[in-house]
Design goal:
By secondary structure, the protein is an alpha/beta fold. Helix content is about 40%, strand content about 20%. The chain has 2 domains: about 200 residues, D-Maltodextrin-Binding Protein, domain 2 (3-Layer(aba) Sandwich), CATH 3.40.190.150; about 100 residues, D-Maltodextrin-Binding Protein, domain 2 (3-Layer(aba) Sandwich). The protein has a 6-stranded mixed sheet, sandwiched between helices. It has a 5-stranded mixed sheet with strand order 7-6-8-5-9. It is globular and about 65 Å long.
Length: about 325
């Protein structure tokens, strides 16, 4: 694992600070040298069984093998993921507590009216993977397309759509879709995708907006139907599923990202070492295969690239939440 000297650290820190990539940079004196030299805790802010948990465990397994140190996933759930994100924010900035989350970090502060913005407070490390969200329905609904779902909802106002939580990107997508379609659909938030998928399969909730990772196997088995995806274009891993734009809703597109962040004050040289380790893990052939099976596109890249993406999405969600009058309850 490479380290960098003081001159290179100062140059790197100045570069990050110029674009707002590393808020609250700590002084070089607190950097811990070669990373990792002990167990690393990865906080996941939603329950096991969903996309974030899947990404964290896949990366953790590869990193444990590649570095010789344990990477332990800790699910800290509740309050739309904010309990886990808060825990990461309050952790020591030494590189041994990391947060893997999705773009809920960009949407939640605006929906839940938080006193702080995770995107401005947390230190960006690396963008891991991208995927669309998908619209899924229970077979008993009797619909096979977005048009049929809209027709059903107009005749049966109040049909519920499950998501992984209040303040999630899925919450925004569902509200946005409901407005554009002119239908009254009811948000049914869960504490993660696992229970939401179980209730969808059982028919306790009739539709859902969720990440495809937790849904694909059930869709292939015929337990549920997937009628649309939310990306700009069809994801390579879901070529047979039409986008919302193809289904008549031009401009209605959101793509989720899954990324690594550190607590405020994480030193720039440690950030670079963590970034390099995760970048190496993303080159693992089995990990890439598993991501593809979970309908995820492997990404990677620099802290600066993640910072730009996360800040742009934060601005986008701020606008959408205001336009759609989305409330956090």
């Amino acid at each position: 694992m490479r380290t960098i000297g003081r001159r290179q650290f100062v140059k790197t820190a100045a570069s990050f600070a110029a674009i707002g990539a590393l808020p609250r940079l700590a002084a070089p004196a607190i950097a811990q040298g070669a990373w990792p030299n002990k167990t690393v805790r990865i906080i996941v802010p939603l329950a096991a069984g969903g996309g974030i948990d899947f990404v964290a465990r896949q990366c953790g397994e590869v990193l444990t093998r590649q570095t010789g140190q344990q990477f332990v996933v800790e699910n800290r759930t509740g309050a739309g993921g904010t309990i886990g994100m808060d825990a990461a924010m309050k952790s020591p900035p030494d590189g041994y507590t990391l947060l893997i989350t999705n773009d809920n970090a960009a949407s939640a502060p605006h929906i839940l009216n938080l006193a702080y913005d995770y995107i401005k407070e947390l230190v960006p490390v690396i963008d891991l993977t991208h995927q669309p969200q998908v619209f899924a329905v229970h077979p008993s609904l009797g619909v096979n397309s977005v048009a049929e779902y809209v027709a059903y909802a107009k005749k049966n106002p109040g049909v519920g759509f499950a998501t992984s939580g209040v303040g999630s990107n899925q919450h925004v997508i569902g509200a946005w879709f409901g407005r554009e379609a002119g239908i009254a659909i009811e948000h049914v938030p869960y504490r993660g995708a696992g229970q939401a998928v179980n209730d969808l399969i059982a028919g306790h909730v009739k539709s859902a907006v969720l990440g495809p990772t937790a849904l694909v196997s059930h869709w292939r088995a015929g337990s549920i139907k997937v009628i649309a995806q939310t990306s700009e274009n069809r994801a390579p891993t879901l070529p047979e599923v039409p986008t919302l734009q193809e289904s008549g809703f031009k401009g209605l597109a959101l793509q989720s990202w899954y990324a690594v962040f550190g607590p405020p004050g994480t030193p720039a040289d440690v950030v670079l070492q963590i970034n390099a380790a995760f970048e190496k893990s993303l080159a693992d052939a089995k990990l890439r295969e598993n991501f593809s099976k979970g309908s995820m596109e492997t990404v990677g890249g620099s802290p600066e690239q993640l910072s730009k993406l996360a800040r742009a999405d934060s601005e986008k969600y701020a606008r959408l939440v205001k336009e759609l009058n989305i409330k956090g309850s």
